[in-house]
Amino acid sequence: MPIYEYQHLKKGCLRGEVFEVVQSVHDRPLTHCTECGGPIKRIISRTNISTPKTNSELRDLGFTKLVRRDDGVYENVTARDGESKMMLRDKPETYPNLKKTISD
Ligand SMILES: [Zn+2]
């Protein structure tokens, strides 16, 4: 079962401001602390944040990933339209077009 993090909206509970509760995904979020009865809210737990794994996920999130293929040769595995697939150290025209990516 997943672990959810809750935050007290008022201070003074023995559990501390933020505490963890193991709940089923089918359980409704708690609204009050079972210890002190104070109001609480569920917060996004760090453990629930998924990291992008595929190259296309990375590209969609705006990342550029270079994989070293040889000395001074990198493959841009997240190449977008108009970008060079291979990046050569001494050829700036093959570098990823960050300006274009950022202005998107
Ligand atoms: Zn409490």
Q: Note poorly predicted spans.
A: none
Structural class by secondary-structure content: alpha+beta
Strand content: 25-35%
Q: Order of SSEs, N→C?
A: EEEHEEEH
What's this model, at a glance?
The protein is of the alpha+beta class and 104 residues long. The protein contains 2 helices and 6 strands, in the order E-E-E-H-E-E-E-H.
Map the helices and strands.
Elements: E1 3-8, E2 18-22, E3 40-43, H1 55-60, E4 66-70, E5 73-76, E6 86-88, H2 98-103
Antiparallel strand pairs: 1-2, 1-3, 4-5, 5-6
The site of zinc ion has 7 residues, from loops.
Question: How would you portray this structure in words?
Answer:
The protein has 104 residues and is α+β, with helices and mostly antiparallel strands. It folds into 2 domains: 3-48, no CATH class; 55-103, no CATH class. The protein is built from 2 helices and 6 strands. A 3-stranded antiparallel β-sheet has the order 2-1-3, with no helix packed on it. A 3-stranded antiparallel β-sheet has the order 4-5-6, with no helix packed on it. Strand 4 (66-70) and strand 5 (73-76) form a beta hairpin. The longest helix is centred in the middle third of the chain and has 6 residues, at 55-60. The structure holds zinc ion (ZN). Zinc ion binds next to loops.
